[in-house]
Amino acid sequence: MSVILLAGGVAGLVLLVVGGELLVRGGSALGVRLGLSPLVVGLTIVAFATSAPELAVSVGAALRDAPGLAVGNVVGSNIVNVLLVLGLAAVILPVAATSSLIRIDVPVLVAMSVLFLVLALDGSISTVDGMLLLAVLVLHTAWSVWSSRRQTRAPAVGPDAVAGSDVVPAEPRLGVPMAVLVIALGIAALLGGAELVVAAAREVATAFGLSDLVVGLTVVAIGTSLPELATSVIAAIRGEREIAIGNVVGSGIFNIGAVMGLTAIIAPSRVPVDPAAVNFDLPVMVLVAVVLLPLVFTGFEVARWEGVLLVAYFAAYVGYVLLDATGHDALPVLSGTLLWFALPLTLLLLVATTSYEVGRRRERAAARG
């Protein structure tokens, strides 16, 4: 890798941090001015802005006849968002989850992930499939904005008003025009930073002879998810914990609905899906989305130990993809460890913590009754 490319990668990381800070500040301020909760700000304004690199990369890949990169980018980005982005944010500060996120938004992400898998079973995503995915996104976004504005006019009382509420923060100093300008500057910095980092990373991947699908699932997925990573981590540091998790869930929904949907609509023909993605990576994406449900259900937050667990699984996933792509002898060892030790232990922990949380809520309900 040349010195210029390396310097560009470092500059890209700096731009990502600056852009994430600006986007959180501007998005939070604009959300309050529009009467939106921090969660919905994360689900819409912040999530859509940070997913812009995924949209640009996937549409461009489809038009350049590189469908493996387009599909791998969407699938890989959703896996990265939950395992790495949310995991690191939770390690820094436990990430708060609202009741509406548990009841509506995470189930929508799970449903869209399953729908994506089902549509891809025939080996491609058609224009009609893309229109269906985009329609689901539009409906969910419209509902989220309408519901949030209604709730901010009539604040919640009871349990939701304490833990997992959609309470709007204090009125910000930024007006709407200035908030929009700050958001625009943040998006520009994020896009520029992501492009510099991805260019450097893609050079390394190409040197190792990795396929379009593998590059999309790893290098490009991580690179285009850097805006989400920077934004969610900065949001967690600044105490905007609902924006942090809203950004992750909203970006996942946007990636499937808009990025994959628009890619299928704009592409000259049906977007083919590699059998390897249908057999392994798409089911992993669905499983990762499903795992979010018990994580956010327990205590209305993703705890630090759960964040560590997510990051560890991300490292294992990337290791598996790379070992499988290169046919390494260590692949059976890693596969066996994950299948017979890590996954059963994780399921046991999730079942135990969920059962404990259900018991606590029943006790509180009995005490109130």
TrEMBL record:
Query: How does the entry describe its membrane topology?
Result: Multi-pass membrane protein
UniProt key word Lipid biosynthesis: no
Compartments it resides in: Membrane
What InterPro entries does the entry give? Answer: K/Na/Ca-exchanger (IPR004481), NaCa_Exmemb (IPR004837), NCX_ion-bd_dom_sf (IPR044880)
Spans through the membrane: 6-24, 36-59, 79-97, 127-146, 179-201, 213-237, 244-267, 282-300, 307-326, 338-358
Any Pfam family hit: Na_Ca_ex
Cite the entry's keywords alphabetically: Membrane, Transmembrane, Transmembrane helix
User: From what superkingdom does this record's organism come?
Assistant: Bacteria
Q: What is its main location?
A: membrane
Instruction: Please list the residue ranges annotated as the Sodium/calcium exchanger membrane region domain.
Output: 6-145, 179-322
What protein is this chain from? Cation:H+ antiporter
Record organism: Nocardioides massiliensis
